[in-house]
Amino acid sequence: MRGISTIAPLAVALGATAASASAIPENLIPSYFKRASSLPEVTVKGNAFFAGSSRFYIRGVDYQPGGSSDAVDPIADEAICKRDIVEFQKLKINTVRVYTVDNSANHDACMTALANAGIYLALDVNTPKYSINQASPADSYNSEYLQSLFATVDVFQTYSNTLLFFSGNEVINSVPTSNAAPYVKAVTRDLKQYIGNRKYRQIPVGYSAADIDDNRVETAHYMNCGTDDERSDFFAFNDYSWCDPSTYQTSTWQQKVQAFSNYSIPIFLSEYGCVKTTRKFQEVATLYGTQMTAVYSGGLVYEYSKEGTAAPGDQYGLVDISGNSVSEQTDFQSLQSAFQGTPLPTDDGGYKSTGSPSICPTKSSTWLVSGDGLPAMPPKASAYFKNGAGKGPGLSGSGSQNAGAESPGTATAGSGQATATSTSKSVAGGRPADFSMGPVACGLVVLLSSFLGATLL
User: Fold this and answer.
1) Would you name the residues annotated as active-site residues?
2) What is the mean pLDDT of residues 83-103?
3) Residue of 156, 163, 153 whose CA lies nearest to 44
4) Domain of 343: which CATH number?
5) Which residue range is the domain that position 129 belongs to?
6) Would residue 234 count as lying in a domain?
7) 173, burial (CB in 10 Å: exposed 0-12, middle 13-18, buried 19+)
8) What is the CA radius of gyration of the chain?
9) pLDDT in tens, 201-228
10) Which residues lie closer than 8 Å to 128 by C-beta, 6 or more apart?
């Protein structure tokens, strides 16, 4: 949908159609309203997300043209981004997840275009070269690594449509790799403290987990236990258990909702969309229905575009990209129909406004972590808290996975202050981690109402 007006983003983000929100002719809107739209900043309240005073349900797609084997930054290229936003608007989504960005590049044009379309960004801060290696987490957790992550935060905290940061993706995907959990959680802690110390707005930070029967629940509770500065702000997992035709009961979704019924932070699906059978996306109606909204906050369909030359039946892409052309696949129409048939809820979905942290899981045959101690932040990284991270290494940097562990350092404090002592307890420690918003918007509408001589609020 081209030429969408700048009052559309708020309506689209909260689930309304862009058509009803963009009825004002563009030639009647002053030029200063056509600059970067400012979407309401999203915050966490209880076990839900809120945009201003309205519950925010994530409805989006995972967006990484080229895939993990050809990592490029799709939101550093204005032409690519604007090409794909046309397709996003057809789906009327409000979120895209991007797995890899170049933190040395400029993202103003694309983030502005996304905001103008009412779309938020869920961002993985890791890249193929700067990530926790699940086989050797201690060696890959170092100041070079954190400098890259903090530089990404520096870049994207300036945009009101930065929805959240993922501290990791499927780093824990088996029983043996649960040993990496303290390092993933330490990254969450470090990001939260860095955001607080730099006095940025409180952008939610959390983890995107693999849907592993052995330790899915343990992972969720581990990320939500301990002190406030260590706990995740949300928990997400990549769930492909609903394969059409299926139901709330037979897909295992009912059991998962029951398992997390008392979970105190938001949960959503960071990937979904089984391809074992023809995808009709029947799960969309259930995901945004009353059976799930008290616990879940929506999800992201995997994935926007086809990757490489995967065998028939293994393709997840909603579209096929060839050069500058985009070809919508059957899955695109199926998802479009599913979204059209399932409006976003307009109420609070029965969310829980309060709740208690989880109890840390105990060591077992499926969970190899003992206690709640976390690695101390690498000492050299403390300088970034005071001076900022500086320019990021981008996608061509030398990488951090082989930089080696540093001697134990200390840095923790819920207030975001780096200190010389630590309450975090140091612990010793496969495959690199996969890469598989309010008053401003309202003020804009008020000013525009005055300009047109109409009451829009």
Assistant:
1) 170, 271
2) 97
3) 163
4) 3.20.20.80
5) 41-357
6) yes
7) buried
8) 21
9) 999 999 999 999 999 999 999 999 999 9
10) 68, 71, 100, 395, 432, 435
